[in-house]
Task: structure prediction
Amino acid sequence: MLIQSDPDRYQKLEKLAGMATDDVLSRPGKGNDYAAVRAPYSRAEKNPAPGVYKASMPNGKTINLFRVMFTDFCKMDCHFCPNSHWVPRKRFSFKVDELARTFHEMEKRHTVAGLFLSSGVAGSGSKTTEKLIKVVDLVRNKYDFKGYIHLKVMPGTEYEYVEQAYRLGTRLSVNLETPTVEGMRRLSRMKDLERDMLSQMHWMDGLLRQRNPGGAVGQVTQLVVGAADESDWDVYQRMAQLYGQWNFKRVYYNPFIPIRYTPLEDHEPTPIWRTNRLYQVDWLKRIYRYEDDEIRHAYDPAGFLSLEDDPKTVIALSNVDRFPLDINEAGKTDLLRVPGIGPTSAERILQQRESHKIDTWRDLQAMGVVKRRASPFVSFPGSAATPAKQLKLELFKERPSEPAPVKVSTPQSKSATAAPCGQVRSCSGCALYGAPGHPGYKGLMAA
Result:
C-alpha cells in the first residue's frame, strides 16, 4: 500500500470525493436519488465539482451534497472493499482543518448545502471517528454551518465518540455490510459484527430516543448483498430488527461487485434484480406495514425471492382465498395488499368512496391504480375480473425451475402472433393479457 506524499488540496478532493461513491449511502446515479452537478461560475465541461451531487434529504427536499472521505487509507481486511488493505494503490488523506475549510468555501459559494463525511479506518475506529468529529466540530462551530451533515461512525468506535457524533451530526450511520455474524466472519478476520457494529447501533438508538435538541435525528446503514452468500431471508430478518427494534430510517442494499486483488475477486457479482427485490420487500415492511408472517410467503424454501415475480404479487397469490376484494368495502390495510394499489391510490379510493361508489376502471386508473396488475384481485359492480385463484392455476403452474414436459408432435406451421401460453391463438383480446404472471408481463417493481 502506497501513501501519496504531499498532494495538493484539489488532487485530494478529486481522489477522496471519487472514492466516496463506493458507499451506497452516497452513491450517485439512477435509483439512488443522486445526480452529479457541476461547479457554478465556471464552464461545466472544464471544471466539474468533485464530490458534489444532488441528494434527496429526509424531509423530501433536494440539496447539493458534498460527499467525501477523510482518508481512503484503511487497515481493515474486508474481502469485498476497494479501500481494504488488499488493494495496492496510492492513498490520500486530508488534514482536519483542510477538509473543514474546503467544505466552508464550497458552501459559501453556494456549491453545496450539506456534507456526507466518511472514511477508511486509519488506526482504530475510535481514532478515525475522532478525526471526523473534529472536522464536523470546525464546520459547526468555527464556520457556523447549521445544515445537514451525514456523519459515518467507524466500526469499533467507543461510546464517548458515538455520543459526540450524535451531538454534531444530523444523521449517523455504521456500515453493517452483512446481516449475520457468520457472514462477517467470512468477510473479515478483523471485524466482529456484534462488537464493532451492532453495539454502536444500539448506543445510537439510545441516544436518538433522548430526542435532545440539536442532536442527530436518525440512523441508517447499508448491506453488501451477496458477498457472504447470505440468503434474502437473512437480509430480511436483520432489516426487520433494525426497523422494529432500533427505529432505523433506512436500510440500503448494495450489490456485491468483485474487486481485483481482494480475496473475493473471483466471486460472482450480485445481479441488480436481487437488490431491486430487496428494496421491494423493504418497502412492503416499512411503508405498507406488512407483517412478518405475510412477507415469509414471498420467499422460496431456500430463503430467496423470486426473479420472475415481485414480492407483493407472490404474497397475494399465496393468499388467493382473500381475493377478489370488493373495492367499495375493503379497508386500507386490505387495499394495500392488492398488487397495483399503493398508499396514494389507496387513500384516493377511500376518499372517493365517501361521496359515491366506484364502478369503473376509468375511476380507479385516475386514482393511480395499475389495472393490469390489480384486475385479478378486485371487484366492483359491473367488473368482470379474472379471479386471482384462476390466475394462479393457469399462469403460475409452470416455472423455469419446473419446465413443462416436452411434447412430441408432427411439425406444423405456427402463426407468428400465436399466444406464448399455447391456450389461445393470439394474445389480442385475452382478458389476462398484461396481468402478473402472463407471458407478456414484464413488470418488476411492486406498486
